Amino acid sequence: MNPVGRSRERGVEHLSLDAAATRNALSADLVGALTDALADCAKDPGVRAVVLTHSGGTFCAGADLKDPPAPREFVGLLRALVELPKPVVARVAGHVRAGGLGLVAACDVAGASAGSTFAFTEVRIGVAPAVISLPLLPRADPRALARYCLTGECFDAAEAVRAGLVTASGDDVDAVLTPVLDGLRRSAPDGLAQTKRLLTAKVLEAFDRDAAELTALSARLFASPTAREGMTAFLERRDPAWVL
Q1: What does the alpha-carbon distance between residue 35 and residue 73 come to, in Å, rounded to a whole number?
Q2: What kind and span of H or E run contains 39?
Q3: Chain centroid to CA 36: how far?
Q4: What is the pLDDT of residues 17-58, one digit of tens each?
Q5: InterPro entries given for it (predicted)?
Q6: CA distance 242 to 244
Q7: What is the pLDDT of residues 54-99, one digit of tens each?
Q8: Which of 155, 154, 152 is nearest to 243 (CA)?
Q9: What residues contact residue 6 under an 8 Å CB cut-off, 6+ apart?
Q10: Residues 110 and 104: beta-carbon distance below 8 Å
């Protein structure tokens, strides 16, 4: 079963994370399928824009600890979202954790339902938000990132908007995104592509400058004894050894 569902409505391709049984965790299969789907959208002239959405109550739970993608493959997915010559809109109607926030940050526009929650949980298992910092740091509020990346606290959609992680939120996420999609359908494809290039230039500079170093850091952290303890504790539903 393909972990990424696809449908199209009036030129907008909807790519749905459809691994609800694992809370849409970023497995090697899901990352590969989503990367391939984006490549198809890039070369399809019938696609004006892409909506990245999900099934189930979780947009993305972060890395699949049982079947994680190679860090370089996840970096490739994030870059594909940023480089896609068509706008990508995140539609979040559930919970977002760790690497899932990297997906949201790599999108051009993000809408969230008021009940959505967010957390950078990497520090809780002994790693760092290394790879996802590539799209996050150029776009989000530094003070908010410092607080939430260092503490792993959960925060709501209104705070995600204030921090620059989400564009807008409301009780009905589809109502929030309707004017966005209407605007994209009224815009010329070439104009959208060139405007997106202008808006993502700083983000891509971060990828060019830092991706190799952060990919190596991520691999090293996930292979560390600290991360093994953190991931084991998570899977066993207990506190890791360092909790005071």
Answers
A1: 9
A2: helix 28-43
A3: 16
A4: 999 999 999 999 999 999 999 999 999 999 999 999 999 999
A5: ClpP/crotonase-like_dom_sf, Enoyl-CoA_hydra/iso, Enoyl-CoA_hydra_C, Enoyl-CoA_Hydratase/Isomerase
A6: 6
A7: 999 999 999 998 888 999 999 999 999 999 999 999 999 999 999 9
A8: 152
A9: 13, 14, 15, 16, 37
A10: yes
